[in-house]
Cytidylate kinase
Amino acid sequence: MVALDGPSGTGKTTVARKLADRLGAGYLDTGAMYRLVTLAVLRAGTDPADTDAVGHLAHDVHFSIGTSPERPEVRLGEEDVAADIRGPEVTQAVSAVSAVPQVRELLVARQRRIIADVLAATGGIVVEGRDIGTVVAPESPLKVYLTASADVRAARRSGQDSAAGRETSVAAARESVERRDRLDSTRTASPLRAAEDAVPVDTSELSIDQVIVALAELACRRGLLDDCPAGAEAEARA
């Protein structure tokens, strides 16, 4: 298993999916799960700041999330909401919903069940989020914490929004990622932080392919990849 944590705009989702494909493993986007609950909260007309109401509603939300890196389906009930959960309203409210202890308890338990099921079925999974290495799966044999400068992350987020047809600017994207960083790192329940034994990887000056190469090398050294260069696994055991 690979636990991949880090703030928004570091390339987590793209990297996690490509790495899972490289490893022949499953894939889980835990952030999408919090966005699903947030979308349900907004559609119900519930105030994201009303922790009791949000916690109660979260228990009644029926959603499914795929674990295929090629096509990770995201459904609220029977509806495909992969695009809806990335909208600005959800992005604005997801930190508040994610900070509700009842929501985190519910989703962490579900994440652990999904991880166990995928590991039993395929033997490997790449899980991305903000508390995977610290809370969800602290026993993971490889923990990686992706970082990037605020300017780079803002530019990436603005590019993603533009590609998806959402109105944006780099300045607005920077304000959004910095706000999310502040809220996620200061919340009481499972704050955003690197696990003590996580390997930090700064993606500011790296292409996606370069990040994948770096992580594949780490996976080789931890014995998580079969087709490693000669000596990689021996180096890990030395």
